[in-house]
Amino acid sequence: MEPKMAGRVDGSYRPAGQRLQAISPFAGLITGTKIRTPDTEMAVQDLKAGDDVMTRNGGAVSVLQLETVDLVTQAIQISAGSLGALQPDHDVLLPADQMVLIRDWRANSLLGQPQAMIAALALVDDEFIQDHGEQLLTLHRIYCGAPRVLYANGLEVASADDAVSNRGQHAA
User: Fold this and answer.
1) 3-state secondary structure of 35
2) What is the mean pLDDT of residues 141-149?
3) DSSP per residue over the chain, as a string?
4) Are residues 94 and 87 in contact, defined by beta-carbon separation less than 8 angstroms?
5) What does the mean pLDDT of the chain come to?
6) For 102-140, what is each residue's pLDDT tens digit?
7) What are phi and psi of 106, to 5 degrees?
8) Are strands 99-102 and 34-36 parallel, antiparallel or unpaired?
């Protein structure tokens, strides 16, 4: 079952394989984020085109393109274990627009679904998931040629192929 997407204004879905030309300029994974590969975990900044990464919705897939950008954006900290057992496996900092797959009560509460992709900002509860305000972040974007759910520091996150197209559109 494909996860529902939160943050789409019209509620529409983009067919698999159709890439957004302009992803949110505020989504990505910060330097040091560990990405699961078929054999181990690698820091996101060490990945290169052609490397295989493990995905929830495609098994091992090859990275087609990587993009790195430094920018000031809103940062969200997710405490270890706050999204389920070992999710994340330690405290994680994400840009507010990074889409995260949730498969717990939050998906049902926010969208009436057993699982959903939702922007990190929409998960803020001011206890376990906190808004750390605007920060200078180095963001790495991973493109796999189709929307993929990557494993990053024990979280399930959207690849850049499936990032939110407009800042500020989050589940309420």
Assistant:
1) strand
2) 94
3) -PPEESS-TT---PPTT---SS--TT--EETT-EEE-SSSEEEGGG--TT-EEEETTTEEEE--EEEEEEEEEEEEEE-TTTTSTTSSSS-EEEETT-EEEE-SHHHHHHHSSSSEEEEGGGG--SSSEEEEEEEEEEEEEEE-SS--EEEETTEEEE-GGG--SSTT----
4) no
5) 82
6) 988 888 887 889 998 999 999 999 999 999 999 999 999
7) -65, -40
8) unpaired
Identity of residue 68: T
Q: List CB contacts of 103: < 8 A, sequence separation 6 or more.
A: 84, 114, 115, 156
Tally Cβ neighbours within 10 Å of residue 87.
21
Strands (DSSP E) along 56-109, which ranges? 59-62, 65-78, 92-95, 99-102
Total residues found in the chain within this entry: 172
* For the chain, percent of residues with pLDDT exceeding 90: 63
As a whole-number percent, the residues of the chain with pLDDT over 70 amount to 79
